[in-house]
Amino acid sequence: MTPASSISNEIIGAILSQRLTPSIRLGETELATLFGCSRTVVREALVDLSARGIVTVKPRKGWFLTEVDLHKAREIYLAREILETGLLRYLNRKPEALVPTALDEIGRHLESQADALSGSDVARRSYLLGDFHVCVANSLGNPTLAGYLRDMTVLTTLFLMRHQSPSDAEQSYREHVAVYDAMVRGDFDVAGDAMRHHLSTWERKVKLEDDVEPVSPLRAALTPRVSDAAGAGNEALGTKGKSR
């Protein structure tokens, strides 16, 4: 693994753990100091992440994690649904393609998720819930597919950081278990249905207050003042009428 790819993987892990938020600036100098390398190596890592859609460079401002809006989130979740359900349906046609150790690995992963849910380490819990999908993708032994799904999971994590309630982690875990149970039975079509259901419930699990029209807080702040002003104006008119 090259130094640049190590930096990329560290940044991805920090996003999945929700330790890096979209508002954080990825300063080249700071990263070079943290990783004990040159800014050239850091820039190589950031360019790689930019090509994968995870990082964005803003002129005269620097590197930032990509801000995923609702429209983009819908696109990514649809892409994930197609890929992840397709993967499981492929296994239904060719069960021999399943890596022999895959079910044991997924089972251990779910045990780790359950342990994380019962603890207070939010970063570990977040990482495991996202990494589950990469773990399932690895069951085909196809690193290219697993890599694509990892990047898409990172992007949806960037969206969920702004919108998801912590209480949804338990529900996501239960949905993961449903996928795994079907895989253990060898019923990969049902596993695909369970995965499709899991990936289609994300809009019900998020709060989208941040995506309302930007003027709403301004309107909320000013509307009472406008009403008060109108009331005051009416009072003034009434007073003038009386004086006549």
In short:
By secondary structure, the protein is mainly α.
Question: Topology of this protein?
Answer:
Layout: H1 3-16, H2 28-35, H3 39-51, E1 55-58, E2 62-65, H4 70-93, H5 102-118, H6 122-137, H7 143-163, H8 168-185, H9 188-200, H10 216-243
Antiparallel strand pairs: 1-2
Structure, explained:
- About 70% of the residues lie in helices and about 5% in strands.
- It contains 10 helices and 2 strands; from the N terminus they run H-H-H-E-E-H-H-H-H-H-H-H.
- The protein has a two-stranded antiparallel ribbon with strand order 1-2.
- Helix 1 packs across helix 6 and helix 6 packs parallel to helix 8.
- The longest helix has 28 residues.
- The radius of gyration is 24 Å and the shape is globular.
List the main descriptive attributes of the protein structure presented here.
single chain; 244 residues; mainly alpha; two-stranded antiparallel sheet; 10 helices; disordered C terminus
Distance between the termini: 89 Å
The strand line-up of the biggest sheet is: 1-2
* Largest pleated sheet: 2 strands, antiparallel
The pLDDT mean sits at 85
- SSE pattern, N- to C-terminal: HHHEEHHHHHHH
- In terms of DSSP E residues, the strand content is under 5%
Q: In terms of per-residue confidence, which ranges show pLDDT below 50 for 5 or more consecutive residues?
A: 210-220, 239-244
* Structural class category: mainly alpha
Give the fraction of residues assigned to helices: over 70%
Query: Rough shape?
Result: globular
Number of helices in the DSSP assignment: 10
Using only C-alpha atoms, the radius of gyration works out to 24 Å
Total beta-strand segments: 2
